[in-house]
Amino acid sequence: MTDTLETPSTPTISTPKDGSGLWTTVSTPDGAFTVVADTDGVVLASGWTDTPEYLVALVHRDLRPHDLRGPAELGRTPELTTITEAVEAYYADDFGPAAAQPVVQRSGPFIEKAWAALRGVTAGTAVTYTELAERAGEPAAIRAAASACARNAAALFVPCHRVRRRDGSLGGFRYGLDIKRSLLDRETPDLEAPLPDAG
Questions:
Q1: What is the DSSP letter of 162?
Q2: Residues 171-198: what's their mean pLDDT?
Q3: Rounded to whole angstroms, how far apart are CA atoms 196 and 76?
Q4: C-beta separation of 61 from 44 below 8 A
Q5: Distance between CA 156 and CA 168 in Å, rounded?
Q6: What is the number of alpha carbons within 13 Å of residue 11 lying toward its C-beta?
Q7: Cα–Cα distance measured from residue 142 to residue 132, given in angstroms and rounded to the nearest whole number
């Protein structure tokens, strides 16, 4: 099963076409942010790295592109421009374009439901792993909800950084707690106290 997680309520089907993919890197206050997408501009993987090959390894084998082309080969295509503008908008405190950016990931049914539920967690809010399991329709699947966050290849677009532990601490994040804290601080600038560290 393949869900294109455009919104939490309207998954659609996406399949790889010719094994080609696109990539681009955007400079952000949190460091280089790279996105790997299919040739239609649907995000396959993203994160704070300048190495697209690292991200390709995170993509499910059925979706993984075998031939990557970036800005040097393609210039600024409409697909890469849309992705770049969504990341730039996020860092200009306009969180809508990143939330609306089409994403496709593949896994088991619960993990895919959890990724869709994550897309429904809006900027400025956070949920616990327990709440994420509930939003995904399986309240007892707390460990599986944590696994969905750990296996999320599309950071920022599927906002696993908005999940915290029940005690309010940050929990984990593939790209480090400093970036997770930075993202949450950006989304909730009116917090009276800093977010607690993982403990």
A1: G
A2: 79
A3: 40
A4: no
A5: 20
A6: 21
A7: 8
pLDDT at 115: 98
Is the pLDDT assigned to residue 61 strictly greater than 60?
A: yes
The answer, yes or no, to whether residue 10 has pLDDT greater than 50, is no
pTM score: 0.86
Residue 74 banded pLDDT, cuts 50, 70, 90: confident
Would you say 160 and 173 are in contact if contact means Cβ atoms under 8 Å apart?
Answer: yes
Strands 67-69 and 20-28: parallel
The answer to whether 24 touches 80, Cβ cutoff 8 Å, is yes
Helix pair angle (142-151, 109-119), 10° resolution: 70
pLDDT for 76 equals 78
Give the whole-angstrom CA distance, residue 80 versus residue 180: 25
Q: Per the structure block, which two tokens stand in for 166?
A: 């029940």
